[in-house]
Amino acid sequence: MGQVVSYNEEIPNCTFCGKNEHQVHKLVTGPGASICDECIELCVDIISDERRHDAEVNALRLPTPRQIFEYLERYVVGQRDAKRTLSVAVYNHYKRVNMEMREKATRLVAGRICNRGPLADVEVAKSNILLLGPTGVGKTYLAQTLARIMNVPFVIADATTLTEAGYVGDDVETILQRLIQASDGDVERAGKGIIYIDEIDKIARKSGENVSITRDVSGEGVQQALLKIIEGTVASVPVEGLRKHRDQETVSIDTRNILFICGGAFVGLEDIISRRLGKHESGFNSVWKQTEASDDDVLGQVNADDLVEYGLLPEFIGRLPVVSVLDDLTVRDLEKILETPANALIKQYQKLFAVDDVRLTFTEDAITAIATTAVNQGTGARGLRAIIERILESTMFQLPDHDDVDEVVVDASAATGKSEPRMVRHRARRVA
């Protein structure tokens, strides 16, 4: 009996569409399966669409700089220039984060990029922020409010507690550890957070060219340790504890998309700027010069050379390109802080008294007296709560024992400590 011979048995076919190698441009053959170039392109399109969709879903919803500014206006009094600078800087930073997520989504497994344009190879560097200003002007509060509107994890670190690795104190990686904890362990979400490092001026070199014979573990060394994580690197962070050990569990976090905001009072920086501007020279045969800038505007003319002379490393300053100067708060500013913001201090105490069905009232003269006291003490907005606590301490101690008080009135005399706040009793008369 004759045998039927098939001449197509040796021709491989695409496992997905069934076409043979003569019907397609390229056929990739593997053990037990084959795929043609047409099916590969179809798979690439499907994967790219899914990645693009995931990037759009995971992208941060960005408010415009004007919306960020208006939100800051609701909570922070004054500092309009600083708020405008921060609004633009934060918007650009997270626009860059979203842009990188979309670019990553369009990148194929083989490393080829879809829809390449003339700017496809351009990488946008991040711009961290340096805030300068005296204590109590709102540096930390501005950073907290920014994190709230952007809905990203936020932590505050104190530069004075940081030391070089191997010395007693906190390693710089502990800042990242706290950010991961603030993200409930979500490392990817932590990689888009905000870290505010306070007292950054305290790690400046104070000795100038005169190097100490002992190791500076909390000054220049900390600046060197902060350089890489501020610029952007993949850092190994211990899951628990403050030190990395050989057998300790660690996680890796990419800091390229973390926004670092550094703040400090920089006491004495005005003198350095004034000398550079030639404001005055002292000594025999001195030539007195007058600059156009007043004392209040001197800090606003700071440049990188002034910060280097103050004690910051040039490469550290280069990683903080956005510099914003916050002004001293006036009595009028402090009066607004007490009354105007959504969570104003007086509103907070009024809410506390309202729990006991008592109305708390501050007269205009009392508000002015409180603001004036804060300015005289040099504590800024940070000292307002302490002043109000002192004024209301006796009243808050006695109030729970009196059920006939309808209102507590704080006047100028009570604000200056000359008398106690006045308790208005109406319920007893109403019952009678």
Please specify the SSE layout and strand pairing.
Blueprint: E1 27-30, E2 33-36, H1 37-58, H2 65-75, H3 80-105, E3 129-132, H4 139-150, E4 154-158, H5 173-182, H6 187-190, E5 194-198, H7 220-231, E6 234-238, E7 250-254, E8 259-264, H8 269-277, H9 304-310, H10 314-318, E9 322-325, H11 331-339, H12 345-354, E10 359-362, H13 364-377, H14 384-398, E11 405-410, H15 412-415, E12 422-425, H16 427-431
Parallel strand pairs: 3-8, 3-9, 4-5, 5-8, 10-11
Antiparallel strand pairs: 1-2, 6-7, 11-12
Helix pairs in contact: 1-3, 2-3, 2-4, 8-9, 11-13
Comma- or semicolon-separated keywords:
432 residues; alpha/beta; Rossmann fold; Helicase, Ruva Protein, domain 3; 5-stranded parallel sheet; 3-stranded mixed sheet; 12 strands; 41% helix; elongated; disordered C terminus; ATP-dependent protein folding chaperone; ATP-binding; Znf_CppX_C4; ATP binding
